[in-house]
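Let's practice the habit of predicting before peeking. Look at the sequence and jot down your guess about where helices and strands might fall. Then scroll down.
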Amino acid sequence: MRWENLSEQTAGPSGPARTAALFGTDVVSRTINSPEFRGVTFHEVRARSIVNRVPGASRMPFEWTVNPYRGCTHACVYCFARRTHSYLDLDTGLGFDSQIVVKVNAPDLLRRELSGRRWRGDHIAMGTNVDCYQRAEGRYRLMPGIIEALRDHANPFSILTKGTLILRDLDLLRAAAEVTDVGISMSVGFLDRELWRTVEPGTPSPERRLDTVRTLTEHGIGCGVLMAPVIPFLGDHPDQLRATVRAIAAAGASSVTPLVLHLRPGAREWFMAWLAEHHPHLVQRYERLYAGGAYAPKWYQRRITRQVHDLATEYGIGPNGAASHRRIPAQRTPAAPEAPTQLTLL
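Done guessing? Here is the structure:
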């Protein structure tokens, strides 16, 4: 990182600016003078813990997570994690997209927590709150140290991302897969470029994400696709679903799992404001569809799931439950030099 291109957000009498009141700990706030981060402020913190237990009432199929960032420059208008910014007295709209909390000590802290007597080596999920391969990762490079810590402790983990930057860590992922279970999933909910540009403006295009799936697969790394979100009335037409599943299959994905858009508090308000601006004729339909809460009705979810699973079968990829994680195939060293190399799916 070229620190000479950074400027402090506020001046301090003895070095970098610190705003302890905001997060309850020392914070260094920086802006980066480059086009890709224009308008973005990074709040560098030294976290007290990094392995987080998922609340028991959560629908998530895992118990532990690691999140090196809070806030996300992907700026997905539907992101359910927006509400977490309010816990820091930050705005859940534009603030979530541009005020990024960076846990700069995440790799060292994770290594220490994995070494603790109480840690049992349970599966750790990443990318389930905000994307660990968002653009900030290109600057702060926290994931290599995190993967190395998990590898060194043979601790199983999974990564869900929209970020093509994961390819930078391909060799580390392969090394981790030699000693533990590793699951990789790419999030691709639709192919519509106009919809992508407005609803996920800070992400790589769906085509680039599928190219990443293809590259991972070509290098022996199994990658599933979380087809999320399926957006009602904008991305759920049968022809759209077919085109998306067909492209996912062509990319060599090991599985496809559909997930219909859900609108939790914080995300709901931001998404509905976006909808009123870009698709005002759909506002009342959404109010009716989501009148029961954050989730679309069960009948609608079942219909989408059935359609996607049928298409997956047609195109030769099996549906996969959200709780399942693929083991990356590791390349085995031959027992003798003259023996042929064989790839083994573990």
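How did you do? Residues 298-314 form the longest helix (17 residues).
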